[in-house]
Amino acid sequence: MTKASISKTEESQPVAAAIKSTINPEEAAHFGALAAEWWDPNGSSAMLHRLNPVRLGYIRDAINLHFGSDAAHLKPLKGKRALDVGCGAGLVCEPLARMGAAVTGLDAAPENIAAAQAHAKPQKLKIDYQNVAVELLDQINFDLVTSLEVIEHVDDPKAFVQGLARALADDGLMILSTPNRTAKSKLMLVELAEMMGQIPKGTHHHEQFLTPDELQTLLEQAGLQVIDITGLAYSPARGFALSDDLALNYLMTVVKR
After folding, report:
1. pTM of the predicted structure, to 2 decimals
2. CB neighbours (10 Å) of residue 170?
3. How many other C-beta atoms can be found within 10 angstroms of the C-beta atom of residue 154?
4. More confident residue, 202 or 154
5. What CATH number matches the domain at 25-68+78-179+211-256, 3.40.50.1820, 3.40.50.150, 3.40.50.620, 3.40.50.10860?
């Protein structure tokens, strides 16, 4: 893992109240149109299905370290509250619920919320799915906040990060992931991925990707501290894997300062 270099500044300004939504209606409509295929590992969300086990492994390791959980414990989040922002149809919410958390999932597309509820119901997973922006969410003080491959789709990344910070408990843990804005990510996640049909056209807009430095600055301004940055690399032979290479995509572990 590559440790982030943290600048101790006094720039953070707590968000005292919810602000306007950062949801981009066009992005919400794009992903809402894909809702019916979200749980199909060979459908339009196939890349997320391949990526998800690696992300979940990173999240579980961070949970164990932050909360002092035993790696063999099946429910390390028992008695804790978790929030997944930009939850889609529940690819992260459901594993968090199985880890014992009381889970809330937010998504901009009502179609995704409906698909998530329909998938969770027969499994008797009690997940509170809401079609609301994190900036407008009533609940706060979540022990765990996750937002994976989401910030690159919002209208105002700074306000979005402030909304995430407001939702996080003082001693909580936050996990983020997003593509890096590099030539490599443009080639692999936009041009080749769309050309080969691995993701639907219009899913990614390279100019909206954030570099690790840019995201870390937004987090620090919101009173948060990045304690780890780890890359997500891809190879045809191995698929997705954690890496020191941040050029394609990266994960961040974040806490309050």
Report:
1. 0.88
2. 8
3. 25
4. 154
5. 3.40.50.150
